[in-house]
Design brief:
This protein has two domains: about 180 residues, Rossmann fold, CATH 3.40.50.2000; about 170 residues, Rossmann fold, CATH 3.40.50. It has 14 helices and 13 strands. The protein has about 400 residues and is an alpha/beta fold.
């Protein structure tokens, strides 16, 4: 093997959740790294994404370009697979070549007995039949390892992972924190059922009834926007809650940098939730549902954020009220949130640790356990009911 392994990142599309990691891998590997977008036309541009990077290849369905990309996938020392057809990487598994899958949790809806046969068949077809192959799981959710273990997939082969949006380094984080409006809360998501935009409105009503000083900004649009407008009016919080609609990410970050707290109210259907990375990077104290895939990995309760039991409005209210009434503690958690992103959960750390993990496997260690915490630590099977505080 060469001093630098050849690495391919294979997934359906190249976007803002993938570009920072791809850049970090390219900085370390140069032309030994290739990103293959298996289902994306490079003529369709995405705002904020640079499609001119030299490592990026688009893979058509057939033809010479398809054959070239397929050969790169087969030859590479290491392949990382997101969403992509298994036919593109099954040959390398048969040859015993190292492959990592990257996945959010498998079962975003709570499984029932009726689901069992279908889920068992799916687990076998896509995962368990490869359990003796050098196929590993990078868990882009704290709940992925437990979902894998439900049917005996990836035994001792699951590792903590994430989405890695760009981390903005603040020249003066203390100055930023001192300028924040302590009574300002921000919520940012698509207004769809899994995000529960009704929850911050009900929280706003509870805070107003308790005479707590606050303002809430809700950023985003979607099918539940009219219903959210109506709910705000019905609950008499129109003077406290402002709907700002959808906006560019740079503007979202500007509002996050002004706010002391970020409300994250999604349920278990939120596979990862990269908006949490961005809020913590902006020095916000996140108050987040325990069911969100990123929360158990990123938030250490009462150190760099607060975690409430999913669906428990009383718990969310109590923790939000406490944060608003304890500005010094809130500021301290916001600083630790920023440092968590700056020092631990970012694309550079992920690239460095992933390459170390891959090298250990290539050197013959089938189940390396290199890191005590954070990215690429061995992922434990975390069940949905883990929050007991």
């Amino acid at each position: 093997m060469q001093n630098k392994p050849t690495v391919v990142l294979l997934t359906n599309s190249y976007n803002q959740h993938q570009s920072a990691l791809a850049d970090a891998l390219f900085r370390r590997l140069g032309n030994h790294f290739t990103f293959i977008a298996a289902n994306q036309s490079m003529t369709v541009k995405t705002i904020g994404v640079d499609f001119s990077v030299s490592y990026l290849r688009s893979m058509p369905q057939e033809g010479t370009e398809f054959d070239d990309c397929k050969a790169m996938i087969d030859r590479a020392d290491v392949v990382l697979v997101g969403m992509a057809p298994e036919r593109l990487f099954s040959d390398r598994l048969k040859k015993g070549k190292l492959t990592f899958r990257m996945s959010e949790r498998f079962y975003k809806e709570k499984p029932t007995l009726r689901d069992y046969p279908h889920q068992l068949a799916g687990a076998w077809l896509h995962h368990r039949r490869f359990r003796r192959r050098p196929l590993y799981m990078l868990c882009a959710s704290a709940y992925t390892a437990a979902d894998c273990g439900r049917f005996g997939c990836y035994p001792n082969k699951t590792y903590q992972w994430a989405y890695f949006p760009e981390v903005v380094e603040q020249p003066d984080i203390d100055g930023l924190l001192n300028k924040k409006k302590h009574n300002l809360l921000v919520w940012c998501s698509r207004m769809v059922p899994v995000k529960h935009p009704e929850i911050p409105v009900m929280l706003a009503k509870r805070l107003a009834e308790a005479n707590v000083n606050y303002q809430l900004l809700m950023i985003g649009s979607g099918p539940l926007l009219p219903q959210t407008h109506k709910l705000i009016a019905e609950n008499g919080v129109a003077e406290r809650v402002q709907l700002l609609g959808a906006m560019p990410n740079t503007d979202v970050r500007r509002y996050m940098e002004q706010a002391s707290c970020f409300l994250f109210t999604s349920d278990r259907g939120e596979g990862w939730g990269a908006v949490l990375n961005e809020a913590m990077n902006s020095g916000c104290t996140a108050i987040a549902s325990h069911a969100i895939g990123s929360v158990p990995y990123l938030i250490k309760a009462k150190e760099n954020g607060l975690i409430y039991r999913d669906g428990d409005l009383d718990d969310l209210y109590a923790k939000t009220k406490w944060a608003l009434e304890h500005p010094d503690a809130c500021k301290a958690m916001g600083k630790q949130a920023y440092l968590t992103m700056k020092n631990d959960w970012n694309a550079d750390v992920a690239a460095e640790r992933l390459l170390a993990l891959a090298q250990a496997i290539l050197n013959g260690d089938k189940h390396p356990d290199l890191f005590a915490n954070g990215v690429c630590r061995r992922a434990e099977k975390l069940e949905d009911n883990w929050l007991h505080e």
